[in-house]
Amino acid sequence: MAQAPAQDKRNKTIVRNRFGFGLGTIGRDAIYSMISMYLMFYLTDVLQVPTSTMWWVTAAIIFTKAFDAFNDPFMGILVDNTRSRWGKFKPWILLGVVLSAVMSVLMFTDFKLQGMEFVLIFLFVYLLWEISFTANDIAYWSMLPALSQNQKERERIGAVARICANIGLFGMVVCITPITEALGAWSGSLQLGYFWLAVIASFLMIAFQLVTLFFVEEDRSIDSAEADKTTFRDLLTVILKNDQLVWVVLAMTLFHVGYTTTTSFGQYYFKYYFGDLSMYAVFGLILGLAQIISLVIFPIFRRRFKRETIYAGATIMILVGYVVFLLAARGAIFGVAAGGLFVFIGDAAIQLIMLMQIADCVEYGEWKNGMRNESVTVSLQPFIFKVSSSLASGIVGVTVILSGMKAAIGPADMTAGGIRIFQFAMFIFPMICIVASYLIYRQKYIINERRYEEILADLSARRSVRG
Fold this sequence. Notes:
Elements: H1 3-23, H2 25-46, H3 51-80, H4 90-107, H5 115-142, H6 151-187, H7 190-215, H8 235-240, H9 243-264, H10 266-274, H11 279-302, H12 307-327, H13 333-369, H14 374-378, H15 380-402, H16 416-444, H17 449-466
Helix pairs in contact: 1-6, 1-7, 2-4, 2-6, 2-7, 3-5, 3-15, 4-5, 4-7, 6-7, 6-11, 6-13, 9-13, 9-15, 9-16, 11-13, 12-13, 12-16, 13-17, 15-16
């Protein structure tokens, strides 16, 4: 009888963790997508930054993202080594979300500067945003392996988190054009429309992160086996000796370079290629719902199929979607939507699987190297996103200039050569990256369900010996 209340408490903790962790992503992903996907459009089409300055701004974005990406593992060490009454994740989550919210608002503030003054202030604010968001991002996702060691429960937590993240992401995709226009009409300019949207999104980011801070409870007993702190000297050892982590990072980076390049072209596609920017919101709503549905049904498919089978099917679906998207007639929303559905349904499944692969590498690293480093291991996920986003921003910035979009007003101003440059960058190049990513995964990743259970059993035996 005494076990019933304890089990009931555990069940409540599981449910609370599942939804409390997931809800924390809504505001984060809304503000992240606003900056990662729409900052370039804001600079070129709202602030109308001159082309000569945009070259410097593009270089600043690439430099900042690259710097912050390589800074991620060092932040992971700081989080791993944190010991406080609130655990090692929550202090960094709180500090990071408050500072990144402030920087997000400043990012869309018009300081009325020109030339190198504009570039330097932009670089300063963007760098501080990247660092503060990193602190929050690494601590947040590092908490996932500490919530459960059960693969299926991790997948449930991850699925809820990805669903909530997609609500935030595609909420921004759907709302950014109509809301910025409405706020712009109310405030007097489209630039102020973007500013007030950044204020609203930043407030939501803090609010939803507070849900995670107050309701999620990590399992600190998992970490009890690790007494020693990880030093900066240990960093490369922790990463490079975890061979599965290295292969996952390479595969994920290639996948996200392709995917992020495509999504970053969204507004440009509908304004300069499709010919109707207002359809972007409709397109985003359809695809957002598709991704959420994909994540909802993922656990159902997992009961019947292994991860590798789902991964293969999702990759084929994405490639088919790209072909349909590429061949769709300009101005034909049905063909565009059909191609987008295939791409985004497959993408949702693969992103969830990749998140689980990173989480499983925590136990693999502990089993192989004798140290449990959640934050250093999981820091490679934002590292991947930032390297991918950096490369995608560079590709978009260069493509917009070389294709003639920077000087164009609408589709009629685009040349045939400019369209071909744009199509290659948005469709062909991403397909090459995604195929390469899948081949690496198939050849090098070995932590399947059976292998993972063997690792857990061995770790459990070692911990029992240590007492």
